[in-house]
Amino acid sequence: MTKLEEYRPKSISLHLLPLSSTGLPIITIFVRSLYENSNLDRSANNRKKIEEFSRSSRDKLVQSKNKMFSKFTSILQHAVEALAPSLPLQEDFVYHWKAITHYYIETSDDKAPVTDTNIPSHLEQMLDILTQEESERESGETGPCMEYLLHHKILETLFTLGKADCPPGMKQQVLSFYTKLLGRIHQPLLPHINVHRPVQKLIRLCGEILAAPTENEEIQFLCIVCAKLKQDPYLVNFFLENKVKRPDPKRPGVEGVREDLASPDTGQPQAEGQAAESPEEPKSAAAQSNNNNYNIVTSLLNLTKSPDGRIVVKACEGLMLLVSLPEPAAAKCLTENTELCELLTDRLSAFYKALPMSMDPLDIETVESVNWGLDVYNMKDDAAIFTGKRALISFLSWLDYCDQLIKEAQKTAAAVLAKAVRERFFVAVMEPQLMQTSEVGILTSTALLNRIIRQVTSEALLQDMVYFLLGEEKGPETLASIAQNPLRHRLIEHCDHLSDEISIMTLRLFEQLIQKPNQHILHSLMLRSLEERNYLENKPQEEREPVENGQPHDFIDLEEDPLFVDDFSPENRLSSPDWLSNSPTHSPYHAKPDGKTEVHKIVNSFLCLVPDEAKSSSHVEGTGYDTYLRDAHRQFRDYCGICQRWDWRGTPKAMEKCDLDSPFFEGHFLKVLFDRMGRILDQPYDVNLHVTSVLSKLSLLPHPHIHEYLLDPYINLGPGCRSLFSVIVRVVGDLMLRIQRIPDFTPKLLLVRKRLLGLEPEGLNIDHMTLLEGVIVLEEFCKELAAIAFVKFHASASTSP
C-alpha cells in the first residue's frame, strides 16, 4: 500500500448502518437535510449581497455618468460660446445668472459638490463680463450689467446660497465671487445698499468655525474689504451695526429693520412698480458707538486663533488696516465693543509666562531682532540655540506686532490700546517679576524689560511704559518722596545692588531708557530736581567766602594738560544747523568775551583732574583726548535731533525767578549714580564702565541746567550740594593718598591698561587690580567729559550772534 493510500478515508459499508422507515440509512437523510439547509442560507446571503452590490454599482454608475455628463456639458457649453456669435454683454450676463438659478429649479440632487456643476464657470463668466463692461466705459459710469446686479439683488441671493452651502462648497464660491468683484471693479461699490448689506452679512459668517475648509477664502474676502475701507475710510460707518435696532429673528411679530433676504432674486423680472433702492446713508454714530457691532473686527479676531499661521498673519494685517482708519466712531467702537485689547494683552501675557524662569541676559540681548509675521524659526538649523529661544522669539514677535499696531492706530485708539497693555501686561504680569527678591528672577526680568524698552517704538506705548516704570509725578523730587512709587524706587536701587550682574543690567536698562524719545523720562529722572537751580550758592556777593585771583580760596589751580589740542581739523568742527539753538550758554559766573578761552579753561579743568602719576594714556598710541571728539559730536547731534521738539529752554532760568530757598535734592537717580561714582576706585571694572557711560549720556543732553550741573566746574555750589565735578574731585583726592602707599604704581598702571587693550597677554596677578582699573576708567571718563564740554560750548558759540 502506498503512503498516499494510507491517508485516504476508508469507505463505509452502508449495510452496516441503521435504516430509516424509507429504507435509506439515517445518516444519509441527516446529511442531505444539512446540505439542503446550508444551500438555502447561502443562496439567501448571496442574493442579498448581489442586490447590495448591484445597488451601489448602479449608484456609482449613475454618479459617474452624471459627472461625465456634467463635464461634457461644460465643455460643450464653452465650445458653443466660443463658436456662437457674441451676445450683448447684458444679455450674456443675464444668461449666466439665469443658468445658475435654473440649476436650483431643475436639480433634485443637492448633495453633489458645486465643483461638479456649471455654477463656478457661470460665476467666473459674470465677473469677466463686469470687468469688461467697466473697462469699456468712462471712469465712474455704471453699465447695464452692474445695474442688473444691483437692481436684482444678486449679491443678496448669492449670500443666501452661500450661507446654506447648497450645493456643498457653494460658500467658498460665494466668498471668492465677492472677493474678486470688490478687487477687480474699480468704481465704488460699497456705498450701494445692495452691496454693503450682503457684504456685512457675509462678514458675519467668517470666522464662525475654527479650521473651517473656507478659512482661506474667508480671510481673502475680509482683507479685500479692509483694503477698500483703507482707501475710503468714511465707508467704515456702513459696517458699524447698531445692536439695538437689529431685530431678533427668534421672536415672532417683532417689527424692526427687515432684511431683504425674504425675497431673493431668481433671475426673473420684477414687477414694474419696484424700483432700485437708493444707496443708504451711513449713520453718524459717534454718539451711539457703544451700541454698535464691529463685525469685521470680530471675524478677524476669530481668525487670529486659527492653527494655520498664514491665516493668522493675514488676520493681523487686516486688523492693522482697521485700527489705522481715522473715523472717531470706528476707533471708539474698536476699543469699546470688540475684544482687540484682550487679544493683544492676553496673548502677550501668555507668551511672557511661557518663558523660562531663568535665562542668560546675554542670550536675551543678542537674540536676532524679530519682526511680526516673519516668525519663522528652524530649531535644527540654529547654531546658537538656547533653552527658551523658541518662546522668546514668539514673545518678541507678538510684542513687535502690538507695538506696530499701536503705532499705526488712530490717536484715541492708540491711547486706549497702550493703556490696556500697561494695565493688563506691565502692571499685572511684569511688575511682580521685577519686584521679586530672587536674584536670578530679578536678573532675567530686568534683561527682558531692557529688551522690551529697546524694541518699543510707538509713541503711545512708550509713554505708558514710561509711566509704568517711573510714575507720572512731575513736581520736584524730595528725599521723603523717593519711595512713593515702589517700582521706580526698586529699579533705581538695583543700580547699586549687591549683585554686580543686577547692577550692570539695571544700569544698561536706564542707559537704554534715557536714549528713548520721551521727555518725561528725563524730567522724572533729572530735570524736576534741577528746575529751580537751588544747587547754586544763595548768599549775596558780599557774604560769600573771599576769593583769590577770581577763584574761591579752596579752588585747586589745575595745570593745563599737554594732550589738549587748541585747534581742530575742519572735519572735527561742528556745523551750525537749527538744532544747535538748544545748546546751553556760558555760565554767568565766568562769562568771557572770548568764548574760546572759556572752552579752554573748562576742558582743561577736566583734563587736569587726574594727577600725572595716575595717567597712562600718553604711553599708549591712539588713546588721547581727541579720540572722544568725533563720538561726542555725533552723539550730541543725535540728542539735539531728539530733543528739538521738546519745550526745553535755551538759557538757564533767571536767578530771580528761581526758588533758591527750597532745599536741594539731586534726585534719587543722580544720588545713586554719584554714590557709585564716588566708589569708582573700589568697584569692578564693568560696573565702572556702565556708571560712567550713563553719566556721559546725561551730560550730552542739550538742556542748560543739565549742562550747568554736570559740566560746569566753576559754579558756586550751595552748602551740602554736590555736582559731578565735585564728586570727581573727592575721588581724585582719595586717589592721591592711595598712590603713595602702592610701590611701582605707574608701571603697574600702564601694564593693566595694555592688558585691557589686548596689547599684553594675561600674566601674573597684579596687586590692587581693582584700584588700577578704576584709575584707568576715571582718566578716560575725564577725557570724555572734556570732549563733551568742548563740543557743546563750540556748538553754542557757532550759533551765537
Write a structural description.
The structure is a single chain. The protein has 801 residues and is mainly α. It has helices at 3-6, 26-83, 89-106, 119-135, 144-151, 154-164, 170-184, 193-205, 215-231, 295-303, 309-323, 328-336, 340-353, 361-366, 389-408, 411-434, 439-455, 459-470, 486-494, 500-513, 519-530, 595-607, 627-643, 668-678, 685-699, 704-711, 724-739, 745-756, 769-799; strands at residues 240-242, 292-294, 547-548, 551-552. It has a two-stranded antiparallel ribbon with strand order 1-2. A hairpin with a 2-residue loop joins strand 3 and strand 4. The protein starts with a helix and ends with a helix.
Coarse structural class: mainly alpha
Q: What's the total count of β strands?
A: 4
Distance between the termini: 139 Å
Q: How is the biggest beta sheet arranged?
A: 2 strands, antiparallel
Shape designation: elongated
Total of DSSP H or I helical runs spanning 4+ residues: 29
Question: Low-confidence runs (pLDDT<50, min 5 residues)?
Answer: 1-32, 245-289, 546-597
Q: What's the pLDDT, averaged over the residues?
A: 80
Strand content: under 5%
Helix content: 55-70%
> Oligomer, anyone?
single chain
- Major sheet: arrangement of strands: 1-2
Rg: 42 Å
Protein name: FHF complex subunit HOOK-interacting protein C-terminal domain-containing protein
InterPro entries: FHIP, FHIP_C, FHIP_KELAA_motif
Family: Belongs to the FHIP family.
